Amino acid sequence: MNRSLLIILLGVVTIWDTVTTVYGTYTIFGEGTIQLVVSIGFALLLAGFLIRTIPIIKNPSEELIPVGTKVLWFLAILYDLFTSFTGNMDLILGNATGTQKVVLAIGLTLFVCSAPIGLSKLFFDPDSE
Amino acid sequence: MTKNKGILEQPFFWYIFIALVVSGLFFYGIKIDEDRTLLNALKIDLKNSSDELKRYKTLEKQLNGSNDSLELIVSAKEENITELRKDIKILSDSIEYLHSLPPKIKKEYVDRVHYRDNYVEKTNIYGKNKGKISIYNSCSSSGRLNVYINDSYQGSLNRYYPNSVNCPTNSAITKILPVGWHKIYITNGRNTSMSYNVYINENNCQTEKIRCF
């Protein structure tokens, strides 16, 4: 597939992933302007972490900062999975019910959360061509 | 020279991680779905309760409206009672005044009232100062007759009665009229007519026989 097209597609899905992160965080924080601003900021930070997945994971250094970044990245992907799951459940599958809804939400979540990692691979892995 | 990879770059870690994530999200999803189904049911219950509450409030308003109406009725009745009491007071005063009059005047008054109550209003079934007239046809050759009283058309007579009829009768044109003279005007199918006046007496039913003309 054309690399640029793939970047656009993964970029759009990454934006949706960020939106679900904003939604999930805002739902937890509660209503308010400050809460919304913090949610957006937090979501952008998480998106940044995930787009830099390849450099973070592949950093061979065992010093505190690179290792700590790996831990934070891991927490970021866990949080992203959670918010993406709740966001997709509410925003896309709001009217459906039952096990099918849950299975669909899991599928969507895995695809959506893998988008920034895929984008990272395209940007930072020289072997991705 | 082989490069030493970290745990995050090991495939088995990601297999386990994905498996754990999928399992965790599945159970979490089932739970929140149940919670939301329950929440939706509660919302429906809440909506029904809200509708019921609205219905009760409307009913309460209607009841309050009825109470207001009752209060209005009671108030109107009380006003009526007050008016009646005033009338009774006026009557009592009048009776007292009458008792205070000299015996001669009192007797005249009583006689007048007695006459009015017993001989005029009570016995006059046609109303005060009124009598009744029944007009019937006794001529076999006159055909249909049109009857007018005081130039007002009253109806037509199609049958004839050679003998006298009782008053009032269904076989005639019957009318209640004020006491006094009234103009009777009769026409037949041959364009001939007759006219005359009759006097109506109070509380009396009189027959008017139309002969051939």
From TrEMBL, chain A:
Top-rank taxon, per record: Bacteria
The keyword Membrane belongs to this UniProt entry's keyword annotation: yes
Keyword list, A-Z: Membrane, Transmembrane, Transmembrane helix
Transmembrane segments: 34-52, 64-82, 102-124
Identification of the protein by name: Uncharacterized protein
Source organism of the structure: Aequorivita antarctica
UniProtKB/TrEMBL annotation, chain B:
UniProtKB keywords: Coiled coil, Membrane, Transmembrane, Transmembrane helix
Regions crossing the membrane: 12-30
Coiled coil: 39-94
Organism domain of life: Bacteria
Entry protein name: Uncharacterized protein
Annotated source species: Aequorivita antarctica
Top-level taxonomy: Bacteria, Pseudomonadati, Bacteroidota, Flavobacteriia, Flavobacteriales
